[in-house]
Design brief:
By secondary structure, the chain is α/β, with parallel strands linked by helices. It is built from 11 helices and 9 strands. Bound molecules: zinc ion. Zinc ion binds next to α2.
């Protein structure tokens, strides 16, 4: 057992936590859920044709761990996700050695609410430095309920570069690829300032939303077998799963949840 494991175990005794993926009382992430975070990189594309390397499918354990990081202050989930993120970033940036990595900026409100920036944490975990050359200049409506073209319209002009960017080459980075509209807006802002945008990398992509125009098959599933990005899972429309151990159970007061058949808080 390494020192790191020993420390984690000691910490788990002092401060019991639940696995961010399944809710089992354990350290940050149980071995079974860790196994679900193995990256399978594939290149997709935004509506405007920007290539995006993604590492994970945003569903099940992956989705719960990412939500734990983004919405439940489980910053301990950043390290296990960073390895997958690193694989996507590396693949997107590899053909462009001088490229700078630009996180899609989050609103100040989101930052204040969380007190941290999940994408920046992922980048740090991947040993990369962010180039903070974009800023939010216009607030947008919540994207979740909007369709693809509505998202694009909602976002247009939302981002701007902090200065002129001539001669600089960029790879955009973000946590989740949904429709790609946000990345397109970020690329537009960088290019408008004279920058060159060669691609993007995201930790995960949403298979259901993306299925209808996924062009990954042709491009670059290749080589790596074990890319298990098959057809989208059973096309149930509801965005959230209603499993008893789903989000609802995990949100907020983990550590003191007492659900039927569940585990109490402190052993
Ligand atoms: Zn687990």
């Amino acid at each position: 057992m390494g020192i790191r494991d020993a420390l984690l175990d000691a910490w788990a005794l002092l401060m019991p936590v639940e696995c961010a993926g399944c809710g089992e009382p354990d350290r940050a992430l149980c071995p079974s859920c860790s196994g679900q975070l193995v990256p399978h990189t594939a290149t997709r594309s935004t509506p405007h044709g920007l290539p995006v390397v993604t590492a994970l499918r945003y569903e099940d354990v992956v989705r719960r761990v990412i939500l734990a990081l983004k919405e439940q202050n489980r910053t301990d989930a950043a390290a296990p996700l960073a390895a997958a993120f690193s694989a996507a970033v590396q693949r997107a940036a590899h053909p462009h050695p001088g490229a700078e990595l630009v996180p899609v900026p989050t609103s100040r409100a989101a930052y204040r609410r969380r007190g941290y920036d999940p994408v920046a944490m992922l980048l740090r975990g991947a040993g990369r430095r962010p180039a903070r050359v974009l800023r939010v200049v216009r607030r947008t409506s919540a994207q979740k309920t909007l369709g693809v073209s509505q998202r694009a319209a909602n976002l247009r002009g939302a981002l701007a570069a902090r200065g002129r960017l001539e001669g600089r080459v960029f790879v955009l980075v973000d946590d989740i690829l949904t429709t790609g509209a946000t990345l397109d807006e970020a690329a537009r802002a960088l290019r408008e300032a004279g920058g060159t945008v060669v691609g993007a990398a995201t930790l995960a992509f949403t298979p259901r939303l993306f299925a209808f125009r996924d062009n990954a098959l042709a491009q670059d599933y290749g080589g790596a077998k074990g890319v298990n990005d098959g057809p989208p899972p059973t096309g149930r429309a509801e965005p959230h799963r209603a499993a008893p151990r789903g989000l609802g159970g995990l949100r907020g007061n983990y550590g003191q949840r007492a659900e039927p058949g569940g585990h109490g808080s402190i052993p």
